[in-house]
Specification:
five-stranded parallel sheet; 5 strands
């Protein structure tokens, strides 16, 4: 079977993407990051999901983006709550982590070279998303071009790297429906930016708002454990 590296955050989107990659016949190598984020709930979720989907291997790479900060997820900045869902896609919030997807995809590309894999799966979405610039088609197209000029295999013509973003043009409801059909157990996932000490979702950050609305629109019960 053909190998692929899939970014695994433990959330709805990346979990659905891993299930899609498996369904398409790839041997999935899941890659998560302990990057100094506010909590470890998402890493625990990534482990659960990777195990439930039966990936070939799950690696958690350690990097410290708190060195630079600049985000509510990597610095002592308050996570915004109760934002109007209609405004979320049009603004870049303080939960944006500078250059995060560029860094993550670069490390995924490095693992691809080692695995002799050509495919990277990422759960970015440009429709019902949180306003992040590194979730846009233009970014993915640019990174794919970079991958094919910045690697030994690409320069030698032995491989052509492909960035797969199957959720790019889906709404959150469509993602949930797709994941459910692909066998994702969403009770294992975690989306909240600011969970309480017991790991319960706050229900008010952008990610919780989009997640809750997605389940409602999809007509699927929300398995999330909320603090309130």
């Amino acid at each position: 079977m053909t190998r692929a590296v899939a970014l695994a955050s433990g959330g709805l989107d990346s979990s659905t993407v891993m299930a899609i990659a498996k369904r398409e016949g790839f041997d999935v190598y899941a890659l998560s990051f302990d990057y100094g984020q506010r909590h470890r709930c998402e890493l625990e979720a990534a482990r659960r999901v990777a195990q439930s989907l039966g990936v070939e291997r799950h690696v958690i790479a350690r990097i410290d983006l708190r060195t630079f900060g600049g985000s509510a997820l990597t610095a002592d900045i308050q996570v915004p709550k109760h934002r109007d869902p209609a405004r979320i896609p049009g603004e870049i919030p303080v939960t944006y982590v500078p250059a995060r997807n560029t860094i993550f995809l670069s490390l995924a590309l490095g693992w691809c070279e080692v695995l002799q894999a050509q495919d990277i799966f990422i759960g970015v979405n440009a429709v019902d998303y949180s306003g992040y610039p590194d979730c846009r088609p233009e970014f993915l197209e640019a990174f794919e071009r970079l991958a094919n000029v910045a690697t030994k295999a690409g320069v030698e013509g032995a491989s052509r790297y492909r960035i797969h973003a199957p959720l790019l043009h889906m709404s959150k409801a469509q993602i949930i429906q797709t994941g459910s059909a692909a066998g994702v157990d969403f009770s294992l996932t975690h989306s909240c930016y600011d969970p309480d000490p017991e790991g319960l979702a706050c229900g008010a950050c952008d990610s919780c708002v989009l997640r809750r609305r997605g389940f409602e629109d999809a007509g699927i019960p929300d398995p999330t454990r909320y603090a309130k």
